[in-house]
Give the backbone structure.
Amino acid sequence: MEVNNPRYLHQGIHVITSIFTVDKGVLKVLLVKRKNNPYKDFWALTGGALYNDEDLEDGRNREIYEKTGLKKIEVKFSKVFGKKDRSPVMRMIAISYIGIIDASKVEIAKDTLKTSNAEWFEITSIPKLAYDHNEIIEEAIKTLKEEILKTDLLKVFFPNGFTLPELQKVYESILGKKLDRRNFRKKMLSLDMIIPTEEEEKFVGKKKAKIYKFKV
Amino acid sequence: MEVNNPRYLHQGIHVITSIFTVDKGVLKVLLVKRKNNPYKDFWALTGGALYNDEDLEDGRNREIYEKTGLKKIEVKFSKVFGKKDRSPVMRMIAISYIGIIDASKVEIAKDTLKTSNAEWFEITSIPKLAYDHNEIIEEAIKTLKEEILKTDLLKVFFPNGFTLPELQKVYESILGKKLDRRNFRKKMLSLDMIIPTEEEEKFVGKKKAKIYKFKV
DNA sequence: GCAAAAGTGTTAGGAGTACACCCATGC
DNA sequence: GCATGGGTGTACTCCTAACACTTTTGC
């Protein structure tokens, strides 16, 4: 490879994570406000340019940390975006991931080196974003809906266990549709992903539900 | 983004396609022999570095063309490879795709600007390849097995239609296992991907099989 | 006793898998 | 008539989806 061929110069890799949460039954995505050009003062997904001395996964985690203060987020790959003009500065490829956290349990840094704000936006009211991030979010939402049916991504909401009705509400919020209680229960138990505990809910003005946990 | 931050410099994107074929019931992958460093005289998958003035898909097609003379290959995305040291020259991310062609119907250029040879290798006897291409092929084979069950990638073998036993043999070669004739037929017909024609096989010393075509 | 939410079982349809026999052809 | 390979049907299992009644609790 002729490193100095001008056609190879000035290329980079964006590592971008669509971080979701469910807040009072509503699916939201975390957006940060950019301090710098390009797209100064635009809202954007968390992410940025990969360094040339770090693995892809490390760069992604670093970007999440730098722009939100969050560490150790479990993510899944979503898609690659490679239009030549997707960045106005230079040629950037984007590798897109999804993650999900419990917004009520974490503190998001609102003012960082590169961001002046951070907010949770309902996915039905996302503003015009920097770069092609609107398109990236759309694909990320599709990936999210597929992944929660195959993995235990949602365990972040229930570090101390959950009742099946609670879990079902989170699924319904993300999938955007009602599920049948009996079928949901059957499905979850058949996936071999959760186990019942001896505990029950407390202090509720109704029948107490049994508490489950995700398997380790 | 500070374009001149040294940590952003010298990065590039490999666009790599594992091109498969089935030849006399054996799954093979196309490898080319490199003329230049790094990995001079090593066998490698078809692919190379993306230019900074072309879309990802265009770069992938250009690389296939430059290294094999092939045009218009339909491909599917496989995986991203992002270890920081996967190239000894500079930091390169690899975007990996799969494709499949009928080796008997195309002429592969054996001597190009960057390659001194091109051969079909059985996937059970692949040599030590350039870069991390051995790992990329392994993942590509997984992707291939998934995709042929969901898409009409195999239509390249049958431009003039096919009988179900013929099609089944190709599936068996790729999946590496025998399939039940009755179940295969049911599955194929239920996928709504093929349609029967009025024709039959000719000149065979046995019962004539009906000829099918892939839907447009 | 009543409102609120949890828990439970059955049935029907579709997909996958396993398996055995008859049919058309060329020799 | 026999060897070769094509064509077909049935039964079982599993998963999905639709659907209604009973139980526990707090007030």
